[in-house]
Design goal:
The protein has helices at residues 29-32, 42-52, 69-83, 94-98, 103-119, 137-153, 185-196, and strands at 3-6, 9-12, 21-27, 57-61, 87-91, 123-127, 157-159. The protein has 201 residues and is α/β, with parallel strands linked by helices.
Length: 201
């Protein structure tokens, strides 16, 4: 059952029998499916794949377009209360980088989100992001390293780069050159699935 948390309520997108556990996705516009039709985003495709493989999990998508790690940190408590997840996928940080926000601040926010999920006994998948080179070598390296370092120090599963195999292909992006098309979503899901699947019972 794919549920979308927005402004404090659940929008039920499909119905299924009660699942043994839920997977909470906390992300930004890429995970929210910006510019896509309903059911085309990678979290929606994740829900479909779980059903196809008879894995008894529901997906709760708490992603918001434009969100930063600070925004995710401020709302993850409520999302955890509503979803009671067994796995939390944290896919935030891209907007921090695009806005040039301090890397140390982003790391602190992500750490707080990991800690909040762990406090609820949920397993964590941290999703990495990369920046265009025009943001400067030092900032770009520090930004990208943060995800791997946090995953290592907090024993979280890591998706090294959400847009692996997608970022370099211009035809897989909408005209804004930022948001992936519907055709890119299965590839994005595969990047997450490689790391998520071993955590599923």
């Amino acid at each position: 059952m794919l549920r979308f948390i927005s402004a404090g309520f659940f929008l039920l997108l499909s119905f299924a029998v009660h699942a043994a556990g839920s997977i909470l996705v906390v992300g930004d516009s890429i995970s929210a499916g910006y510019g896509l039709a309903q059911g085309q985003s990678w979290p929606a495709l994740l829900e479909k794949r779980l059903r196809e493989q008879r894995l008894d999990y529901s997906v709760v998508n708490a992603s918001i377009s434009g969100d930063t790690t600070a925004g995710g940190r401020s709302r993850i408590g409520g999302a955890l209360d509503q979803a009671s997840p067994v796995i939390v996928v944290i896919a935030l940080g891209g907007n921090d980088g695009l806005r040039g926000l301090p890397v140390a601040q982003m790391r602190d926010n992500l750490k707080a989100m990991i800690d909040a999920a762990r406090a609820r006994k949920a397993r964590v998948v941290l999703v990495g992001m990369k920046l265009p080179p025009n943001y400067g070598a030092d900032y770009t390296r520090a930004f990208e390293r943060s995800f791997a370092e946090l995953a290592h120090s907090h024993k979280a599963a890591l998706v090294p780069f959400l847009l692996e195999g997608v970022a370099e292909r211009r035809e897989l992006f909408l005209p804004d050159t930022i948001h992936p098309t519907a055709e890119a979503q299965p590839m994005i899901l595969d990047n997450v699935w490689k790391v998520l699947r071993p955590l599923l019972k």
